[in-house]
Amino acid sequence: MQSDIRRELERRFSPEFRNRIDDVTLFAPLTTDDVRRIAKSYLLQLEQTVAKAGKTIQIDEAAFELIATEGYCKAFGARFLKRVIDERIKLPITMNWNRVPTFTFGSRSSRSRSTPCQRNRPSARTLWRIWKWRSSRTP
Q1: Rounded to 5 degrees, what angle do the CA atoms 93, 98, 101 make?
Q2: I want to staple 126 with a disulfide (CB 3.0 to 4.6 A). Which of 23, 37, 108, 122 is the partner?
Q3: CA 115, CA 132: separation in Å to the nearest integer?
């Protein structure tokens, strides 16, 4: 397998670029169990951080599955998982921090959306341009 990859590198890339590559490491694609373990680890860290402030987080199994599903993409692995947790869990906690001591996330509070792999997200620069254009039009 390594020799096949080396041949493909030689065929596709210039010698100058190939000389910058020290080693080729092969990775197996993540399984859904791997993604669940990663999500559980992220959420455990978040629970510990919130617990230091005397607050708690409750996430039911359906909401956890939704987070794991939205955060996984076969092409990119769990690259979007942190972003999904930020959008689905951290942002609502931040918005309601002073209102409640316990943050509950259930299947009713979590609506399914397209996964980050499926959506075509605008860049930060594009969002900034849209905001600038809208704010210049506001009377």
Answers
A1: 70
A2: 122
A3: 27
- Asked if residue 104 belongs to a domain, the reply is yes
- Concatenated DSSP letters for 66-123? HHHHHT-BTTTBTTTHHHHHIIIIIHHHHHTTTT-SEEEE-TTT------TTTS-PPP
How far apart, in whole angstroms, are the C-alpha atoms of residue 107 and residue 113?
A: 13
pLDDT in tens, 12-63: 888 888 888 888 787 888 888 999 999 999 999 999 999 999 999 998 898 8
Burial label for 91, CB within 10 Å (0-12, 13-18, 19+), is exposed
> What's the structural domain count of the chain?
1
Residue 95 lies in a domain: yes
Distance, in Å, from the CA atom of 27 to the CA atom of 110, rounded to the nearest integer, reads 32
pTM of the shown model: 0.65
Q: Domain of 70?
A: 30-137
CATH code, domain with 108: 1.10.8.60
Mean pLDDT along residues 113-131:
52
